Amino acid sequence: MWLVVVADYRPESEMGMRAFPVRLPSGQRYWTVLDEDLQVVVVADGFLRHQRFGRDGAESTTKAYAHAIALFLRWCARTGRDWLAGVERFGLFMTWLAHAGPEVSSVRATGSGVVLAGPGAVVVRSPSRINGVLSAVRGMVVHAVVAGHAPAGLVAVLYEVADDRDLPGQARGEDGRMAWRMRARHRLRAPEVTVDRASDGEIVALLRACRSARDRLIVLLMARAGLRRGELCGLRRSDVHLLVDSRMLGCEVARSHLHVVRRDNPNGAWAKSRRQRVVPLDFLVVGAFDVYEFERMGVPAAAGGDFLLVNLFREPFGAPVRPDAIGELLAAASGRAGLDRPIRPHQLRHAAGSNLADAGAGIDVVADLLGHAAVSSSQVYVHPDPSRLRAAVDSVPSPRERAGVDR
Question: Are 60 and 270 in contact (CB under 8 A)?
């Protein structure tokens, strides 16, 4: 039995298709889509439940997908189409996404949802954002086809389906059997951008602006170990091994390190990667751990418990830190440090990945340390900085030197 808790009720006349959180009796959460009558949209709910529980996805993933699917269903409703007809007009939906601002596309918007796009029209969503929405809708459609809720022909509307006979022999399977591949028909070319990382100067300024040893440890674990905020807030004391030899703890990994483990947590923290990984810790992080432990021991209500990061300065004392609180902490520290922009958690993680690549770590090492499922996700970090490009050019001998000619 599914339990839906309605936390923000509005009159039906003010509501449209919308994403909504669901809490089950077991305490697990995922996001679904409600229609104008506050009824669950079955085709969307089936896909989102499958993502959360069938594929062991993160709650945050279902949240992003639910908002994207709700956006598509609002477009369908406001342009007089059902969702099946909307899939067949996916190109029109792409144009609408690019130009429909909040006054047209939000839950509270009124009217037909029609937008006029032409020369000079303002683009309100980036190509990467549009591609993300399209990907979520395609996932829902394919799931509906597999579940028998939609005709199989819709897959060909969204994907080009072809065999591998036109591929070179090296690209085919080793067994020689013919394989099939699919490529999305609707996709925008997103411009290549450099990774938005926190600079070393900004990280130092954040550390100086932190008001507690706990907050400094939080900054260092993201900036030096590359942890995501969900991984950070889900850490237990038993995940951290600071001994030179941890075999007495049942761990064969040498020297200081921590284990990132996916588990359900009462504070909503969730490790994105399904695979458990080990992250080595340097002397800066180990020293921050020691200072934090002394600080925590000074708060009797927070001294116990297995969660690593807990409330020390506000009630409930000893409760695990929420992932949302990490962003609030960094924003406040950025303001105290006088930075030109508030630093976000992922910018610290990007800094860790960039520094690893700049220090000469291979892309496979960066991917493993950051918990990327695909090595391609780490490609963004391997672009060398300008100083390394200059050094590489200057290190190449001149033609005279290579030929052994003095003049």
Answer: yes
79 is in which domain, residue-wise?
A: 12-109+122-166+178-184
Residue 363 parent element (H or E): helix 363-370
The 10s digit of each residue's pLDDT in 277-288 is 999 999 999 999
Residue linked to tokens 């992932």:
323
Please check the confidence at residue 119 and state whether its pLDDT lies above 60. no
Residues 23 and 133 in one domain: yes
Task: Judge contact between 366 and 382, C-beta under 8 A.
Answer: yes
- 134 with 219, same domain? no
What is residue 118's predicted lDDT score, i.e. its pLDDT? 58
Query: Contact at 8 Å (CB) between 60 and 28?
Result: no
Provide the whole-model pTM: 0.76
The count of C-alpha atoms lying within 13 angstroms of the C-alpha of 179, restricted to the half-sphere facing its C-beta, is 11
The structural domain count of the chain equals: 2
241 in the same domain as 128: no
Q: Does the CA dihedral 128-158-138-45 come out positive or negative?
A: positive
Mean pLDDT over the full length of the chain: 85
CB count, 10 Å around CB of 146?
Answer: 14
Residues 275 and 370 in one domain: yes
